Amino acid sequence: MISNKKYTFQICLWLALFLFGLNIRAQQTPAAKQAEAFVIEGATAHLGNGKVIENSLIMFEDGKLTFVGSAMTKIARKGMKIKGEGKHVYPGFIAPSTSLGLIEVDAVRASKDQDEIGEMIPHVRSLIAYNAESKVVESMRPNGVLLGQIAPIGGRISGTSSVVQFDAWNWEDAVVKQDDAIHLHWPTTFRKGKWWEGEGRGYQANKKYGDEVKETLIFLKNAAVYDSESEIKNPILSAMSGLYTGKQKLFVYADGEKEIIDAISHIKDVGIKEVVLVGGNHAHKVASFLKTSGVPVLVGATHNLPVFDEDDYDLPYKLPKLLVDAGLLVGLQNSTASNFQIRNLPFYAGQTVSQGMEKERALELITGNTAKILGIDDMYGSLETGKSATLIISEGDALDMKGNKLTQAFIDGREISLETHQTELWKRYEGKYKGK
Fold this sequence. Notes:
Low-confidence stretches: 17-24
Structural class: alpha/beta
Number of domains: 2
Largest sheet: 8 strands, mixed
CATH architecture of the largest domain: Alpha-Beta Barrel
Distance between the termini: 52 Å
C-alpha cells in the first residue's frame, strides 16, 4: 500500500509533468539581426501619417528605412526584392496600456504578474516581469500588432510601464522605451454596490470619493517635494520623480465628466507635465477642456457596449471619431477585454471607418498617433526614411478581418515568424476537415 506521503509526491510529480507538457512548445525563435537589405516594390504603402503611396518603393537596411517613395523614382534597388503588386504595406501596429506578457492564463494565479499588493506602488516595474516567450504575445503578430506598452494594473497607482517589441529572447532584448509612464486609476464618483452587505448590485454614489481624491493628491504632492538626494531614501516617492521633470508621462484612467475634469485639473496643479487620458468614455463631453489642457486620449476598444445607461447605443463605435473631430490626439487601446483580444486592435480601428472616419486617419489611431502618445514616434508608428523598419505586408486591407492576411512582418528590419500555436492548430485541422 502506498503511503500518503509517497502518494502525494507522485501526484505532484505527474501534475508538474502535465503542466510542463502543456507548455513544451515555446515561442518561435526570435529573428536574427537584419543581414541583408530588402526592397518592397509595387505595393500600396499606408504610411501611418495620413498619407498613401500607390505603386510604392520601400527599401530598408540595418534595421532602418532607407527609402520610402514612388516606384517610378529612378534610384538603385539594393537587396532582396519582395514583390508587392496587389499587396499593402503598413507600419507595425502598436498596443498601448496593456498587460500582455504579464499574464498567461487568467485562471492560473501563478501566471499572473500584472498586479501587486498595495494602493500606491509606482515603483513596481512591469518590464522586469515581462515574459517575452508568452504564447499570448506571440499571437499578436499574425494580425500586425508588433509593439506594445506593457502596463501593470491594480491599486490606485499601479506602477511603471515600458514599451517593448514582440519578438525577443527576454525583456532586455524586447525593450524599446524603458519606464516610460506611471499609471493612475482615478477614484470614481459611482461604484458597484456591495450586495453581500445589503447594498444591492447596481451602481450607487461613492461616498468616499472626496477622501480618495484627497489621499491621491497628498501622495502626488509629497512626491513633488521629495528630494531624491535626501539621506532618507523612499523608493516609492523616488519612482515618481520623472513625472515632475517631464521624463515620464502619467496615464490617468477615468471615464465620467467629473472624474476627467477633476483628475486633469488637480494633476496639472501639482506640477505633472505630461498627462494622457485612458478610457475617457465621456471624453467627448469635455473635449474642449481636454484640447485646452493638451491631453491626448487612448479610447477603449470600439467592440464594446456603452458604459453608462444614458449613453447612445453606438457610442463606443463613434467615440474615436468624435474626439478626432474635436481636434484631439487619439489612439486606441483594449480597455475592458481580455489580453488575447488585443490582436483585434486593427479591427477596432476599422470599426471607426464605418462611423465616417477616413481610413488613413483610422490607421493613425493604432500607428502614428499612438507612437506620439507613447513618445516613440521618432522611430516607430510611420513609414518614413530614417525610422525603424518595423512594418507588415498584407494581402488586403489590414483593418478588415477578411483582408488582414499577413505574408511577412519585420521588426527593426528583422523578418519575424508569423507562426503561433493557433496557426499550427489551424493547419493541423485544415488537413483533417478539408473537403468535408
